[in-house]
Amino acid sequence: MAFQGSGELEDQLEEPEDTLRVSPAEEMPVDGPPALEEPEPLLLPWDRFSSWLHCICVVGFDLELGQAVEVIYPHHSKLTEKEKTSICYLSFPDSNSGCLGDTQFCFRFRQATGRKSSLGCFLDHFERDAPVSLKRDQGYYYGYVYFRQVRDKSLKRGYFQKSLVLISKLPYVTFFHSLLKLIAPEYFEKQEPCLEAACNDIDRWPTPCPGKILTLPIMGVVMKLRIPTCYDKPGTSQLVQSTPSDSLVSIVLPTVHEVDLFRCFYPVFFHIQMLWELVLLGEALVVMAPSPAESSDTVLALVSCISPLRYCSDFRPYFTIHDSEFKEYTTRTQAPPSVILGVTNPFFAKTLQHWPHIIRIGDMTQAGEMAKQMKVKKLKNLKTLDSKPGVYTAYKPFLNKDEDIIKQLQKGVQQKRPSAAQNAILRRYFLELTQSFIIPLERYVASLMPLQKSISPWKSPPQLRPFNQEEFMKTLEKAGPQLTSRLKGDWIGLYRQFLRCPNFDGWFRNRRKEMMQKLEALHLEALCEEDLQLRIQKHTEVETVDLVLKLKEKLTQAEKDQLPVKTGTLPKLQSHIETIILSLPEDLQGILHKPPSP
Amino acid sequence: MSLRELKVCLLGDTGVGKSSIVWRFVEDSFDPNINPTIGASFMTKTVQYQNELHKFLIWDTAGQERFRALAPMYYRGSAAAIIVYDITKEESFQTLKNWVKELRQHGPPNIVVAIAGNKCDLSDAREVSEKDAKDYADSIHAIFVETSAKNAININEVFIQISQRIPVIDADGSAVKGFKLRRQPSESTRERTCC
Question: Which UniProt keywords apply (chain B) (predicted)?
């Protein structure tokens, strides 16, 4: 009888899993999407929309209330009051003077706790193949802003000021800015029917599945793009347009997430390599820029310069004094946190005076003004308002300066090389640098994996060996970054510092999870190859029942975690279980033999 | 064989059958209880025309008045517009004339205009005579057909005639307007009589 009890318990435990699945019986509405190239799981209304966006907000200025969220679309979207307040302040420039006309920028804010999307499980599934730095941001939302400020004498304030804001967990900055360029100008002219049409279009899109070429119709134009996968060779995943086309008909986006690194780093050009180190090590960094567009572009460029590594600390492309984390991040009672902030309010020059690394950016539109001063500036020279552009820090880089990349880019400037080409050179440089740094770590961590022969189907999967810092350091003598990079300097010191920072922690957790799943998968495959019939003949009935329950549990877990097993493994295991159950007495069969999931 | 993307929009009063025409053309199906379109819906279909593939990017716009102002997004950049009226509703034919005016004023200069008198299976309730409509279409050099999405009459023909009127691309890649000089388009010969 005890078996029956545990069987029921298992039933109950499995149930929530099933309710998260989308039932194929749910029909699409009749005017659903017929233009999809490949069949996808059928989804409920607004599921497709939710896989791209949380919601769209309109933020306006009310003379009495100040900034206010005027519209949230779709109307059923949920935002807490705190989230709304954040969106309000972050959707407007801090100081309006410099932003006449249309401006685009982005911000990032903490999601209120305790809310979980019912789509989560499904979203995890299609996101499995995304590169780690492009996965949805757990615990945070991005806000992509299109802000318009124009003179309007008919309004009391004399100005029309409004922002259209896309709220999403996806870090596809280039894509969302292109999308806003299509939606926002139409919205400002034509109001809500326009949002209704846009949301309706988005709700027919295919889900943001990495690796496929996606065709996304939106407001009379077709956008084509491809979200990279973790299997792409880094630096090669750009989509190119085969035939020229009319931008009123279709637009091909070469990238969904890459910002123009060269343009962003132009004002602090001589220090790119030092900035790479600061970001890699998760140092507290603040970007002071004249406008939210420049601050957010620069912060995103910084975060992405260590790609394919994911920057694991908090970063705020645009941060204001109203931010709910303002106190937490600016307090002087603790050391500055491991975050990157982008700010525009001059007030921060004083508030963050004690920060170790400060990047000041001038007006980027004056392109002629290339950084002339090569010297890093002393922090004490940072005055409040009129300080010159540059990097203010006392930091001494671990690696020697690479003069070649500076010369190469300088030459490009003199020869008027197109910005896209300069960007490609710089991106490749960062990529090679990061890869040289990470390869020794990858190699060492791979050696922590137990030998294949130590995997026995009748024992728990073997454990990974722990990460031993000194052991790793020893591998650097022979197989360090000197194999792939000609840069000299204190690589050892750089690694020691890195191993203490959140970026290492995030990277290692992820690698360990992948490897443990690989071990689980190998273990499952080994189990499948066993002759289970033979085994149970040698064991008692109780042990056999125990085996069935354990195998079932393993199967459920494997399906849930989507273990990287060989195709056919799971069905094979399922049939093994069925066979064992059939060999048991009938009363036990009734208890154990559940029909496969409906 | 080269592939050309051709943006096509459908315009016309609410309920005249724009979505039904597109569904018949793309899916070859018909649903009498179709929901009103919100904003616009989008579908594609590729057909062969001579030595080219024409991929129609079809924007089926909402006929409801509240979406009226969005129309320019859909006819902007369009190679062709199909303006649909309901032969059993005189009013929808008047709306059609307003759409023609708007396209003349704000639409792309070389847009091919096709007029579709839909629901020709309901001839008992006819309010717009075929001759009046045809005369009007001729006067503006538009393609004209009476269609029935329900009975699959003349639906493909509309798109075939659009393909015929799309300027061919010569070796330099620039469009040549091959049909511009023709006063009387050849559609009348292939038209199936309905009703």
Answer: Cytoplasmic vesicle, Endosome, GTP-binding, Lipoprotein, Membrane, Nucleotide-binding, Prenylation
pLDDT at A280 over 80: yes
Which distant-in-sequence residues (6+ apart) come within 8 Å of A290 by Cβ?
A: A98, A344, A361, A362, A363
| CA–CA separation, A570 and A383 (whole Å) | 65
String of DSSP letters for A110-156:
EPPTT---TTHHHHHHHHTTS-GGGS--TTEEEEEEEEEEEE-TTST
Q: Which helix (H) or strand (E) holds B12?
A: strand B2-12
Contacts of B8 in chain A (CB under 8 A): none
Residues from chain B that touch A35, judged by Cβ atoms under 8 A, are 42-44
- Classified as helix, coil or strand, A190 is helix
A132 touches chain B (CB under 8 A): no
Does A46 touch chain B if contact means CB atoms closer than 8 Å? Answer: no
Task: For residue B37, give the chain A residue with the closest CA.
Answer: A31
- Answer whether the bond into residue A440 is a cis peptide, omega within 30°: no
Chain A, chain B: beta-carbon pairs less than 8 Å apart: 78
* Distance in Å, alpha carbon of A145 to nearest chain B alpha carbon: 22
d(CA A17, CA A122): 11
Question: pLDDT digits over B108-125, tens only?
Answer: 999 999 999 999 999 999
The pair of three-digit structure tokens given for residue A408, joined into one six-digit string: 């190469």
Q: What is the DSSP string of B163-181?
A: HHHSPEE-TTS-EE-TTTT
Q: Who's near A232: CB < 8 A, 6+ residues apart?
A: A131
A358 close to A391: Cβ distance less than 8 angstroms? yes
- Chain A environment of B73 (Cβ under 8 Å): 186, 219-221
Question: Over 70: is that where the pLDDT of B193 sits?
Answer: no
What is the tally of helices (H) and strands (E) in chain B? Answer: 6, 8
Which residue in B113, B1, B105 sits closest to B48, CA to CA? B1
Q: So what's the ipTM on this one? A: 0.85
The tokens for A167 are 């709220």
The model's pTM is 0.85
Residue A217 Ramachandran class (φ > 0 left, ψ -120 to 50 alpha, else beta): beta
Among B3, B7, B20, which would you mutate to test the A interface (most chain A Cβ atoms within 10 Å of its Cβ)?
B7
- pLDDT at residue B175 tops 80: no
Q: How far is CA A539 from the centre of its chain?
A: 50
Looking at the complex, does the CB of residue A246 fall below 8 Å from at least one CB of chain B? yes
